[in-house]
User: Fold this.
Amino acid sequence: MQDVLWHCYPQFIDLYGDLSHSWVLQLLKLAPTPQKAKRLRISSVTRFLKQHHIRCVDASSVKKLLSELSVKVTAGTTQGAVFQLKSVVERLTVVVRQLHEIRHEMGRLIKVYDKILREADEPEHKARQRYVEILASLPGVGIFILATLLSEVPDLLQHRDYNALRAYSGVAPRCFPCYFLVHKIR
Assistant:
């Protein structure tokens, strides 16, 4: 998709680098060519951006950028590119929707898993053991990495092997005791 846009509509890539957001795909459906972007009114672009809660760009700059005719191509090339883009946009829209659903379902399953862990824990440790919260608080750990950690290291959590868990997650590399330091010879 990026190659097709690069050859026929490069300013669309300049608008917002990541083409996998649903609002970018919808905007591409709304204005698949610079000629169609010229026909858009500022009010409809403003309404579109408000509808999708986009504040990183404003309507006038979107219309100006997309309306520029930067690459001259024949009408047949434009029609072929638009047809190919429509096909790719439809498939990407489905993929983006499925990723959103997967992320939502993973969040739900993580909450269920957290509840099971808390109920299975011994009563004296209930207040201090919050595995999911602790793992989720690690820098760089999102929903997918959290789900991976919870699914691959349940034994480490169950046996409270925190050193192995830190090493597995990569947040605490192996440290050597201070007696391994080389002292300066006088």
Summary: Residues 121-169 form one domain.
